[in-house]
Write a structure and sequence with these properties.
With about 160 residues, the chain is mainly β. It contains one helix and ten strands. The chain has a single domain, classed as Immunoglobulin-like (Sandwich), CATH 2.60.40.10. A hairpin with a 5-residue loop joins strand 2 and strand 3.
């Protein structure tokens, strides 16, 4: 099955229910504590839920919506990651995006990866995400520019 293009993923994010944010008067700091780059779990009401991975899996956190695609699909080994990010319903350009992968049941993670902004608006990429063993993995994505943004948590099984 072919992978969705970045433009298609951005379009799907923009058209998804709840993607039109109207609460521009509220401060983005409502859903996180002062160290906004550390996920607190307050943004995701089902922080312990396990997601069913599909390319372009979407989740909301704070005032951002993130779609994630791993290439290849989750399995033991190294992956390229594409993140399509919306902030208040528009492509999030110029944000500081982080990606941290851990295995909650084992108390360890994997080597850090660097996330870079691509030339496609709202699209960020990371290479070399190493999912070292099968089991439940948690990917914490932080999307911030100053006090604006949010944290998103993806949790899925690696066969």
């Amino acid at each position: 099955m072919p992978r969705p293009t970045h433009a298609l993923a951005l379009l799907l994010l923009a058209c998804a229910p709840g993607s039109d944010e109207h609460d521009h008067d509220a401060h983005d700091t409502d859903a996180h504590d002062t160290d906004h780059h550390e996920h607190t779990g307050t943004e995701d009401t089902a922080a312990d839920a396990v997601d069913t991975y599909v390319d372009g899996l979407q989740k909301q956190g704070g005032h951002v919506k993130v779609a994630i695609t791993l290439d290849p699909a989750p399995s033991v080994g190294t992956h390229d990651v594409t993140l399509v990010v919306l902030h208040h319903g528009a492509a999030a350009e110029g944000f500081d995006v982080t990606l941290d992968a851990t295995m909650p049941a084992h108390g360890h993670g994997t080597s850090p990866v660097t996330v870079t902004e691509s030339s496609t608006p709202g699209t960020y990429t990371a290479t070399g995400l190493d999912l070292t063993m099968p089991g439940l993995w948690q990917l914490d994505v932080g999307v911030w520019m100053g006090d604006h943004g949010g944290d998103v948590v993806f949790r899925f099984e690696v066969p």
